[in-house]
Amino acid sequence: MSKIIWSKIDEAPALATYSLLPIVNAFTKAAGVEVVLSDISLAGRVLAAMGLAEDELSKLGELCLKPEANIIKLPNISASAGQLKDCIAELQAQGYDIPNYPENPQTEEEKAIQAKYSACLGSAVNPVLREGNSDRRAAVAVKNFAKKNPHKLRAFSENSKAYVAHMQGKGDFYGNEKSVTVAKDQKVTIALNGKELKTINAVADEVLDGTFMSVKALRAFYKQTIEDAKAKGLIWSVHLKATMMKISDPIMFGHAFEIFFADVFAQYADVFKEVGVNSNMGMSDLEKKIKGHAKEAEIKAAFQAVVNADAPKIAMVDSDKGTTNFNAPNDIIIDASMPVVVREGGKQWDRTGAALETVAVIPDSTYGMFHAEMVADCVKHGQYDVTTMGTMQNIGLMAQKAEEYGSHPTTFELAEPGTVTVTAEDGTVMMSFECEAGDIWRMSRVKDIPIRDWVRLTVERTRIEGIPAIFWLDEKRAHDAELIKKVKAYLADFDTTGLDIQFMNITDATRFTNTRIREGKNTIAVTGNVLRDHLTDMYPILELGTSAKMLSIVPLLAGGGLYETGAGGSAPKHVEQFLNEGHLRWDSLGEFLALAESLRFLGNKHADAKLTALTAALDVANNSYLDNSKEPGRKVGEPDNKASHFYVAQYWAKALAEGSNAELAAKFAPVAKALIENEDKIMSELMAVEGKPQNIGGYFHPNDALAEKAMRPSATLNAIIDSI
Q1: What confidence score (pLDDT) does residue 597 get?
Q2: How far apart are the C-alpha atoms of 703 and 358, rounded to whole Å?
Q3: Could you give the angle at which helices 609-627 and 589-605 cross, rounded to 10 degrees?
Q4: 336 alpha-carbon distance from chain centroid
Q5: How much is the average pLDDT of 469-495?
Q6: What's the CA gap between 287 and 280, in Å, rounded?
Q7: Average pLDDT of the chain?
Q8: What angle (nearest 5°) sits at the alpha carbon of residue 695, between those of residues 691 and 696?
C-alpha cells in the first residue's frame, strides 16, 4: 500500500483527528492508500526527549529527505516555557517518571535536562520537516465561498487613532543587521569578547546575518509608546512571537512586562528575587511563584491597581477572566493577534470587555513595518470588503531552516558588554558588533539551494497564475541586499518573458498588494520565512475568516510533498469549549484540502484509476461541503466538527458511487445510501452530546480511548464507516 503520514499533534486539530482519521482510512484503503499516524505532539516530543517514546519527529525529518515522502502536517504547538512546564506536569500526573524543567540549572545534571527539554521549545517541528519552500494560497472554491458568504469585518471609525508602533533607527534588529555570503564550506565562530558562543558549519554560498536588539533602546521604546498611549487615549497592546522565536521574543516580552508595571517591579524587587520570578514568563508564572508568600495579596493588588488605571489601559487576552496581555508570552502570538486588530477595526478589548482603539506595539521593525502599513491602510481607506477583495498568494523561502529567527541556537542574551564577532575559519572577522550587557544578539542563515528553489517556484507559480509576483526585499536591509543579488542572478536561468516580477521593500509591497486587493485583483507575495508567517495569517483571516482554510503546499527539495493544514492560533479556546460543552468548532477544511493534494501527489507518481477516482470524488465532496455550508458552528447546539466530518464522508461516498470507476462505485454505493438514509439518526446522535462536559484524560496527552469516544459518539456512523 502507498502511505500517507498524518501528524498526531496537539489541541483542537488533534481532537478532530480522532473523528476524521477513521473516515479517511476507510476511504483511502479502497484505493490502496494507508494513512498512518506519526506522533509529533508536544507530549510526544517530551517523552521522546526523555527516552520514553520513539523520536517520531526525527524519523519524519529523515523521510522528508526522500522522494517518497508524503506528509499531512497539522498545526502543532510551538511551545513556550510555560506550556512545556504544564505539559511536563500533566505527564508526571499520568505516571511518567520525568524530571521537572529546570529554569535556572545549577548542576551539570540540570543543564543536561534543560538541554533535552529545550529541544521541545518553540518552532521545534517546522525546521525539521520544512525541507522545501512554501506555496500558500486560497483554493478557488474556498475563496468564492468566502465572497458569497462573507464573515464580519468591523469598520474602522472615522479619524481612527489606531496605529502600529515599531522601533526606528539603530536600536533594533533591522537597524543593526550585517550580512555576508560565505565563499566556501567552513567553520564559522561567534564569540563575545573572544569567548566562543557558538561554532557553526557554514556551507558555500550560504547567507549569514548577524544583528542585535539594544535592550536600552527597547526599554526606552516601550516607555515612549506607553506615554503616547496615555496622551492619545489608546489601549496599549504588545505583539510578539515568543513561541517560534523562543529565545529573543520571551526576553522582549519580559522587558515590556517590567516597563508597564515598573513601579510594582521596583517596589517588590526583593520579593521577586527571593521567589525566583522570571518576568519573561509573564503574570501567570509570577502568580505561581508568589503563591503562599506573606505579601501575595498585596502584590496582586498592586498589579491590579495598574490594570484598573485609566491611562493607559492594557489590552486583555480574556476580559471575563481578567487575563491581561501579560499573562503569558504564548498568549500574544503576533500572527494571530494582529489580524484580530485589523479585523476588529483597529481595536482590542479592555478589562471591561469594551473594544477600544489600540497602539499595537511591535518592537522589531523587520516585520513591524508590514503590520504598520496594514493598519495605516485601513485607517486611510476603511475596512476591506470580503465580497469583492482579491487574494494574496505567497511563495515563502523556508527550506532547510531558512531565516528561523530566534528559534535556533544562534540567538544569545549577552552576559557582558563588548564586541560580538563572527569569524571565518582562517581568522578573518566577517562581522562585528559593539553591544551592551543584556542585548539580544542573533544570527540567521539561509542556504543557496533553497534560494534557487524559491526563485524556480516563483517563476512557475507566476506563469500559472498570470498575476504580478513581488519579491518583498528591501535593498536598505543588509540581509535582503544579499538575497536581491542572488535572486536576480537566478532569475536569469529561467524564461520570464511576459511575467510581471518586481522587487519592493515591505511598505511598498504591502501598499501595492493592498491596492490590488481592494480592486479585486490577485497578487503573489514572495517573501522570506518570517514574513511568510505573518502574511499567510493576516490575509487569509481577512479574506476567508481563518488561515486554517489556506491551501499550504510544500514541494520538498528531494521530490516528496508536505501538506500543511493551516494555523492553530485559536485552538486552545476550541479545546476549552469542547471540554466544557462537548462542542468542537475547529474547521477541518484545511485537512480535507491537504488530503486531496496529498492524494493528487500520489496520483501523479502512480497512474492508478482508483486513486484518480478517489481524488476526484474528494474534490467533489470538498466543493459540496462549501456549497452546502457544512462548516462547524461556533456555538453549542449547532453542528460541530464531528458533523462536518460526517457530511464530507456522505458527499465523498456519493461522488464515488456516481463516479466512473465501476469497482469503487459498487463498493461505495451502499455506503452512500446508508449515510444518506441515516442522516437524521446520525445527526441526532452527534447532537446528543452537545452541552455536556467531556473528559479526555489530558490536555497535552489525552487518553486515546476517552478522546475517541468523545469524538465518535454516533454508533450509527461508526458502524457504517467501520464496515467499509
Answers
A1: 95
A2: 42
A3: 160
A4: 8
A5: 97
A6: 13
A7: 95
A8: 125
Cα–Cα distance measured from residue 682 to residue 645, given in angstroms and rounded to the nearest whole number? 12
CA 383 – CA 606 distance, rounded (Å): 47
Cell of 5: 503520514
Residue 582 is given by DSSP the state S
CA–CA dist 493, 460 (Å, integer):
13
Residue 570: per-residue pLDDT: 63
Q: What is the pTM of this model?
A: 0.91
Gap between the Cα atoms of 408 and 347, Å rounded:
33
Radius of gyration of the chain (CA): 26
Q: Which helix (H) or strand (E) holds 523?
A: strand 523-528
DSSP one-letter code for 400: G
* Helices (runs of H) and strands (runs of E) counted in the chain: 28, 25
* Backbone phi, psi, residue 353, to 5°: 90, 5
Whether pLDDT at 344 is above 80: yes
617: Cβ contacts below 8 Å, ≥ 6 apart: 652, 655, 656, 659, 664
Cβ burial, residue 250 (10 Å; 0-12/13-18/19+)? buried
- Residue 47: all three cell numbers together: 517523552
Beta bridge partners of 318: 323
Side chain identity at residue 106, one-letter code? Q
Question: Which of these, 375, 388, 394, 387, lies nearest to 511 by C-alpha position?
Answer: 375
Q: For residue 208, what are the CA distances in angstroms to 138, 282, 340, 445, 447?
A: 33, 32, 34, 5, 9
Reduce the DSSP state of residue 390 to 3 states and report it: coil
> Is the N-terminal amide bond of 13 cis, ω within 30° of 0?
no
Give residues with Cβ within 8 angstroms of 400, minimum separation 6: 131, 447, 449, 450, 557
The answer to whether 31 and 615 have CB atoms below 8 angstroms apart is no
Instruction: Scan for cell 478589548, then name that residue.
Output: 349
Cα–chain-centroid distance for residue 172? 23
Rounded to whole angstroms, how far apart are CA atoms 581 and 569?
Answer: 20
DSSP-derived pairing of the beta strands 392-397 and 134-137: antiparallel
How far the first Cα of the chain sits from its last, in Å, is 17
DSSP 606: S
What phi and psi values does residue 37 have, to the nearest 5 degrees?
A: -80, 145
Question: In the sheet where 195-202 sits, what is the strand order?
Answer: 195-202, 186-192, 418-423, 429-435
Give exposure, 83-110, as e/b (b: 16+ Cβ within 10 Å): bbbbbbebbeeeebebeebeeeeeeeeb
User: Mean pLDDT throughout 460-486?
Assistant: 97
Query: SS3 for 298?
Result: helix
- The residues with which 359 forms a beta bridge, in sequence order, are 163, 236
pLDDT of res. 170: 86
CB 640 within 8 A of CB 633: yes
Cα gap 169→207, rounded to integer Å: 23
pLDDT in tens, 630-688: 999 999 999 999 999 999 999 999 999 999 999 999 999 999 999 999 999 999 999 99
Q: How many CB atoms lie within 10 A of CB 493?
A: 11
Placement of cell 526599554 in the chain:
219
* pLDDT > 60? residue 453: yes
Tens-place pLDDT, residues 66-119: 999 999 999 888 888 889 999 999 999 999 999 999 988 999 999 999 999 999
What is the distance between the alpha carbons of residues 523 and 534, in angstroms, rounded to a whole number? 16
Burial 553-579 (b: 16+ CB within 10 A, else e): bbbbbeebbbbbbbbbbbbbebbebbb
pLDDT digits (tens, 9 = 90+) for 288-313: 999 999 999 999 999 999 999 988 99
Strand partners, 423: 189, 429
CB 358 within 8 A of CB 314: no
